[in-house]
Amino acid sequence: MTARVVDLPGVQELLQGGAQLLEVLPREEYEEMHLPDAIHIPLKELDRDRAAELIDRGRPVVVYCWDQLCDMSPRAACLLGVLGYEAFDYAASKVDWIAHGLPTEGTAAAELTAGSLAREDVATCTLDEHAEQISPRIEASAYGFALVLAGQVVLGRIRSSQLGVGSKDATAEQLMEPGPSTMRPHTALGDLRDVFQRRGTRTAVLTTPEGELLGVVRCADLPA
């Protein structure tokens, strides 16, 4: 018997309907950072009595652990299903949640991350827009480039230096550098500083695990 697996949109829909969150990682990991209002029962302590003590049997329960490779949440969700609970396995778990820049609780939740410094004023365009449309946006931007998007997914980058004489009729698809490097919003500031130094760059593009744009971070905004 395996529990039903849900992705982040599924989790959010369940929570809106009154579902409970259950973290089954060890206590120190829960105390450091957990999803808002999550119940905590370590997998090693999860049994019929602990479940009955903390979990409302009348509401669905979404179980999570650390990430897709950790097997604690599927095992816990399976046990709860056997015990008669309506249990779901958030297989992507805590890493997926924080990688989307969603709020957390715990001793480490207030620490600054790349996402806490994200700016949304980056210029953007679509694949079929022309240089003469994109150029004014880049000129008005503080970053010297525009990101090429499909919906919110980052496809490429166009630098101001690529918009020279004779390029006004070129499309973003023709001009862009494909696949610019991105980072997740939960990146620690120390790690972000190391990336800036190693790459010699002044900005970092932040995206979700699906590649959707969250914003940009400037090296100049890092605290001293």
Can you walk through the features of this model?
By secondary structure, the chain is of the alpha/beta class. The chain folds into two domains: about 5-110, Oxidized Rhodanese, domain 1 (3-Layer(aba) Sandwich), CATH 3.40.250; about 115-220, Roll (CBS-domain), CATH 3.10.580. Helices cover about 30% and strands about 20% of the residues. The chain has eight helices and twelve strands.
Radius of gyration: 22 Å
CATH architectural designation of the largest domain: 3-Layer(aba) Sandwich
Q: What distance separates the N and C termini?
A: 53 Å
How many independent structural domains?
Answer: 2
Return the average pLDDT rounded to an integer: 94
Q: What percent of the residues sit in helical stretches (DSSP H or I)?
A: 25-40%
Strand content bin = 15-25%
Q: What is the approximate shape?
A: elongated
**Strands of the biggest beta sheet: in what spatial order?**
1-5-4-2-3
Which blocks of ≥5 consecutive residues have pLDDT under 50? none
Count up the helices. 8
CATH class category name of the largest domain: Alpha Beta
CATH topology of the largest domain: Oxidized Rhodanese, domain 1
Within CATH, the superfamily of the largest domain carries the name Rhodanese-like domain
Reading the helices and strands in chain order gives EHEHEHEHEHEHEEHEEHEE
